[in-house]
Amino acid sequence: MFDIYTIVFLAVAVFIFLRLRSVLGQRTGRERPSYDPFSRDPARGAPKDASQDNVVSLPGRKAEPAAAAVEPEVPADRWKGIAETGSPTATGLDAIAASDPEFDPQHFVAGARGAYEMVVTAFAEGDRRSLKDLLSREVYDNFEAAIGEREKRGEKAETRFVSIDTADIVGAEMRSKSAQITVRFISKLISVTRDSAGAVIDGSPDKVTDVTDVWTFARDISSRDPNWKLIATEAGQ
Q1: What does each C-alpha distance from 118 to 128, 133, 162, 202, 216 come to in angstroms?
Q2: Residue 229 Cα distances to 54, 179, 220, angstroms
Q3: Rounded distance, CA 146 to CA 50, Å?
Q4: Which residues contact 50 (CB under 8 A, 6 or more apart)?
Q5: Secondary-structure class of domain 88-235 per CATH
Q6: How far apart are CA 101 and CA 182, in angstroms?
Q7: Can you tell me the distance from the alpha carbon of 77 to that of 100, in angstroms, rounded to the nearest whole number?
Q8: What are phi and psi of 37, to 5 degrees?
Q9: DSSP 140-199
Q10: pLDDT tens digits for range 99-128
Q11: pTM surpassing 0.85?
Q12: Quick one: average pLDDT of 191-204?
């Protein structure tokens, strides 16, 4: 059973606790914000590291310049078997390859051989449609005119390939965006022209003739069309 003094002391303790709580429990707006150790807010600053008190700052190390990109070394004899090293043709092939990284001279020569045979055969047969896909506009106009004159005279031409002995690149250059390559063909042909009555007026249906032609092909490097077209022809020696 509590006596009167115990009750008085309890009442005084409760009164003091309530007064302290009413004062300490209030915020005035001037209190410092709580510290967040992960905050990147510069206004708050970084936590001080006691170990830094004895550290002397040293001059910063200068950033080393980035290493220059190393261009792959191009072999001096990259056109071996196609063009002599250091020749104008080799220089031209270098320029073409620089503009068209997918350029493959071996593939080009194979295509040129096929085009050569197709053009010669189509011209003899008067196949204008095939010629139009393989020739530049100027060359086509010249071929078409020759075919037209032959037809007016009632003549017919026959050409048969025996072989294409060589197809060598003898010139190459870049002209603006146009890659141009000149090829010398040496072939064996059987060629004959007959008049309207069927009589032979030129060539021989049995004789094999050695023929040398120098043709120039071109392609617009900026075009998505991968095909080359014949832009010039001349008889070789």
Answers
A1: 12, 11, 14, 21, 15
A2: 79, 11, 10
A3: 98
A4: none
A5: alpha beta
A6: 19
A7: 19
A8: -65, -15
A9: HHHHHHHHHHHHHTT-EEEEEEEEEEEEEEEEEEEETTEEEEEEEEEEEEEEEEE-TTS-
A10: 999 999 999 999 999 999 999 999 999 999
A11: no
A12: 94
- The C-alpha atoms of residue 56 and residue 231 are separated, in whole angstroms, by 76
- What per-residue confidence (pLDDT) applies to 9? 58
The stretch 35-42 carries a mean pLDDT of 40
pLDDT at residue 169, rounded to an integer: 98
| Closest by CA position to 160, among listed 112, 114, 125 | 125
Question: Which residues are CB-neighbours of 220 under 8 A, at least 6 positions away?
Answer: 177, 178
Instruction: For residue 237, give Cα distances in angstroms to 25, 87, 213.
Output: 112, 21, 8
Helix (H) or strand (E) holding 91: helix 88-99
Bridge-partner residues for 135, per DSSP? 230
> What's the pLDDT at 68?
56
- Of how many residues is the chain composed? 237
Strand partners, 202: 193
Helix, coil or strand: residue 235 = strand
Question: Encoding tokens for residue 108?
Answer: 């080009």
